Amino acid sequence: xxQIKMIAVDMDGTFxxxxxxxxxxxxxxxxxxxxxxxxxxVVASGNQYYQLKSFFPKIAAExxxxxxxxxxxxxxxxxxxxxxxxxxxxxxxxxxxxxYENVHTILCGRESAYVNKKEPQSFVDHGSIYYHRLKLxxxxxxxxxxxxxxxxxxxxxxxxQEILDSLISAMDDRITPVxxxxxxxxxxxxxxxxxxxxxxxxxxxxxxDEEVAAFGDSGNDLEMLKHAGFSYAMGNAHxxxxxxxxxxxxxxxxxxxxxxxxxxxxE
Length: 267
Known about the structure:
Distance between the termini: 5 Å
Shape: globular
Helix content: 25-40%
Low-confidence stretches: none
Number of helices: 10
CATH class of the largest domain: Alpha Beta
């Protein structure tokens, strides 16, 4: 299967196991093989760029990140793309979110993510796992010195689907609500998703859709899995993701991604 030229992996629930880690030794061997075969390795996640690069301390400067669900793309430490919401849109969305009880919000931008000082400490601590740059502010409406492109929401346990459906109808076309794993919800700029990010990179590198392999487990991976010539849903993936992908592989706790990459590179 030498035609594969790009491998794109989601992180939480896909590349990373439940301990928030991966088999680093096996990955190093596979990464070396990818370099030899000129296969691009792309991290495609809803998480913040500054958090994602911390997982790859030795090679972060030479790989590519489609971060924030495609809103922020960095290749070899150079910004390729940065989405942006108008401040008026940000405020309209905050108005709608204010009507939901027990929905906690992180506002995401290029320089940092932002959280209201009044949010519970447990939410701030949880957020700082995924957002290594997280600033406490008096008011999210006052954040106006950054390029803002995403909202990350934490909702009460067991309510994710209900709130997701409600947000889809409340937001109209302003912003697109997607599930992002851990029963969390992201609000992303319409059309600015992981597949759009991969497409930008493909144009840059001259790679066709059928030369792309993608791995995912959540609602924010659907476009990417539809788009890629080779698409894999994790054994632990959401049912809709399993329906969308061309193949279902082992779970994130069984090294599913790395085992499949090994197969792809070996053929």
